[in-house]
Amino acid sequence: MDRSEFIEALHLIEKEKGIDKEIIFEAIEASLVSACKKNFGSNQNIKVVIDRETGNVACYAQREVVEEVMDEQNEIDLMAARILNPSYQIGDTVDLEVTPRDFGRVAAQTAKQVVVQKFREAEREILYNQYITKEREVVTAIVQRKERRNIIVQMGKIDAVLAANEQIPGEQYNFMDRIKVYVLEVKQTPKGPQIYVSRTHPELVKRLFEQEVPEVHDGTVEIKSIAREAGSRTKLLFTPKTKTWTLWAHVLVRTAIV
Fold this sequence. Notes:
alpha+beta; elongated; disordered C terminus
């Protein structure tokens, strides 16, 4: 890929993936600083600039203008600086181009790595934003496998963890079983969103009633409290509480907690 194709690719990435191309430029420049320092010493002040229009890459050694040079790697005297530009004053910074001969190849490799990394970061952020909205909600998950005492379930595009202490005692979880789970927490990690779910949380019962009973969903009847022994029994207090609602509660708790 030549420089013009690279610039066009960044414009396309910005449009389709929503990744600001300036963020990619800055990340590539920061990565190339380390590569450039390998050639000129880690103690030097190095700056890498990518032309936003052409894609050309240049590496500069930065020198502070001083009266007397004490550090040759990072300073330049005023007379030498004014040979380059008569307007330089004490305290100014002079950029001396020191672009290595094979720096274009290094820049291309670094650019590819940075773009891939930014893609992954963007995908992780998109997934996190998608699943954080499901926190404290009930969703249907599909059992995938067992890891030690934990059960791994699939929620859409990613897996979630049903920890041992969040499982209903005696309940069997078989591969590809579809189960209702309560989303306890969605964490952002370097590897992507990590989701923790529960089958024992009292809110699981409340959310199921909200899904199944229109009067609970629209607020006509309010669930005031829940007492649950997962896998055994569940008690709910409604307002208003009538014989009809007591019967519905009994039936739904016995049949809907799947």
